[in-house]
Amino acid sequence: MRLNLENFTKCFDGTPVIEGLNLTVEDGEMLALLGPSGCGKSTTLLSVCGIYRADGGRILFGGRDVSALPSQRRNVGVVFQNYALYPHLTVEENIAFPLTVQKPRPSAAEIARQVREIAELIHIDALLGRRPAQLSGGQQQRVALARALVRKPDVLLLDEPLANLDAKLRLEMRSEIRRIQLETGITAILVTHDQVEAMSMCDRVAIMDKGEILQIDSPTQMYRSPANRFVAGFLGNPPITFLEGRTGPEGRFSMEAGLTLPLPSHLRGMPSGRPIALGLRPEHFGHGGQGQATGRVTFVEPQGREMLFDVQAAPGVTLRSIQPTRDDVSIGDEVTWKVDADRMLAFDAEGRRL
Amino acid sequence: MSSFADPIVDGARRARPVRPRRAPVSRLGLILMAPALLLLTLFFFLPVALTGVFAFTDLSTSTGIGRGDYVVTPTLLRQLGDKGLSDTDAEAVARSSVTVDAAGLARARAAGVDDRFLDEIERRFMGRDYEAPAGFVRDLRGLRTAPRRPRDLKSAAALFETSVLNQRFATSQALAAQLEAMAPEIAPAVRARIVEASFTGARFTTENFRTLATQKETARLVGNTFLYVGATLSLFNVGLGLFLAVVLFYMPKGASSLFSTLWLLPRITPVVLYAVMWKWFTWEGGFLPILADQVGLPSFNYMKGSVVTAWATMITLNGFIGASFGLILFSGALRAIPLQQLWASEVDGASRWQQVRRIILPQMRWPILFVTAYQTLSLLSSYEQIWLTTNGGPGRTTSVWALEAFKTALSNYTGNLEYGMGAAMALVLVVVGLALSLIYLRLFKFSELVGRPKIEI
């Protein structure tokens, strides 16, 4: 079911934290709300499920305005960060809970059938007799997911569902949640501060900052072509390096510290003397290109398959490069590596993409 | 500190046979605990131990706490008569005889009887015995120096009488010897019984418990205590406390803290003041009766006017004190439920009532059990509010075990304070309390509840 937020506004104690937000999640799509803590992503999610009431604008489920409905009547499924399982109920009772509070209440056989069905989908049919305290974090998460889905909700909302899991489980649950979402074809919103989660699980990613959506795009497109400096800086691990400087003559870029690089080809015609910032991702330094930079290696971080190098190209200017693991470079070495100037991202003084 | 890193020291230590290390006893800890231990001994262990001892005595105001004497009184003879002492034996004990001897003369002289009269008695009747005082009086009347007034004559004659009655004997042997001399026809077994019964001091006995087990009053006291504890606990301490906690939980923060403070007032008000306020509230001319009068309801002293209103008053005023305890405890427990759980239940479609009934209340099991257990014990032993208000009235209809124990031992109108009986009643309370504690601990798997792990987060 298609989900729309139109001019959605939310205030706390009279101060607006989100103002005039517009968002559309297509039917069957999984969208990530990605942003740093306090950016308003959880507030948006809690407003969609009705725990917070919108202070302005409309929330539409498939064209139906639900802004005035209490959460009980919105038919949404929510998975909370701490799973919020009911500790006094067994797994089966937990999953059955949304069905048992329905009016009219379905028959016991019908409830049992639906619980079993969803438990099989989520691979927890062996755990039905246990209590939440007897489950591992990953199992608790699956139960929470089953409970959210058993009522066949219009929208599935996931609030940092992987934040409390260890790294290996997180990897496993990432694909599990995506599998279940695809199998059920449910419209879903994932709230997360983890870019990897957002990019790997979702069809589209909406980056939020200070209550505003800065860009909505597919993960690849957003990484390749961020709309502004915040998005460019937020996506990418290890993060992008920003170089502050001015345009120079002959399509070059120079920094006060002394480093000069060629501008990306589409900006070569820019008049000189303009203040701009170039963003250089680590994978575009040391892998070929027209430009080059020379400097001393100040730090080497082996990561197994790859190695991360910090290169001081000028006083106070550190470029970062990620390359397949190599043994011929160590701290203190002087290196001259290529810079892929065409793939550098340029931003104006206000942080807009050029 | 010795260095653990030193390999030589370490090696030397290992070479010696290993001795089990004693748990270190901190002297400072003992010193710090000493005042508490002392106070605990003085004001808890000692009173409990003494209660245990007193419970098996018939200690009362009339026995006193000193050493007792052996006295046969007419009252005692009557009581023994009720228990099967024959009339002839009783008469034999009460019998008095007259002997003219040096001791009698000395008594008479000390009492100020005319010396010439006494000299004549000594000359004429010295060494004579009379079975009954009447004969002696007749003989005295014949004397020349006898007093003119019959009353003086009789009182002088009485000084020569000897009787067991109303004489204090320090030991049982002394009384037994005197009894044997005065009434040799009484069988030794009967005599022993009389001597035994004549002791005025406290005795060790299980009579208190026998009385408690057999008297009719006990059943009513137990019933009252059950009703009082049960009703106060279920209606107020748990019922009202839980209701208020849940209602306040859903109220805005400012209002909820104001109301919780208001509900604390009955607990922080000094108990006497609180009792007096309830009197003003319920007595004729008080707030409630006046209000009832205005509305046309029966208006009288609700606190003591009828059994039903007395019970209602007593339970309510005790319940208001206890409700705040539950309120605070339940509020804390409610706040410990993660907010997301409540959100989740709302999103799952649960109404307010379903949320309370299906999510909140089941998780309140432990605090409810705790309040029940704790308040049962404290209600069982509390009596001061009842004492200060209905005082067990009207009649003794609202009296409970603890109040009755207190009155028996320490405060009653007749002035005969039965310490032994009161201690026995208190001991029953202690035993019941201990038994209940053990049952609560066992039945509700206290350790398991306390140690139950929270959801893994």
UniProtKB/TrEMBL annotation, chain A:
It comes from the Bacteria. Keywords: ATP-binding, Cell membrane, Membrane, Nucleotide-binding, Translocase, Transport. GO terms for cellular component: ATP-binding cassette (ABC) transporter complex, substrate-binding subunit-containing. Coiled coil: none annotated. Residues 3-235 form the ABC transporter domain. One of its GO terms (molecular function) is ATP hydrolysis activity. Belongs to the ABC transporter superfamily. This is ABC transporter ATP-binding protein. It comes from Mesobaculum littorinae. The lineage of its organism: Bacteria, Pseudomonadati, Pseudomonadota, Alphaproteobacteria, Rhodobacterales.
From TrEMBL, chain B:
Belongs to the binding-protein-dependent transport system permease family. It comes from Mesobaculum littorinae. InterPro entries: ABC_transporter_permease, MetI-like, MetI-like_sf. The keyword Transmembrane helix applies. It is found in: Cell membrane. The chain crosses the membrane at residues 28-56, 226-250, 262-281, 308-330, 366-383, 419-444. GO terms for biological process: transmembrane transport. It is a multi-pass membrane protein. Keywords: Cell membrane, Membrane, Transmembrane, Transmembrane helix, Transport. Gene3D superfamilies: MetI-like. GO terms for cellular component: plasma membrane. Residues 223-440 form the ABC transmembrane type-1 domain. This is Sugar ABC transporter permease.
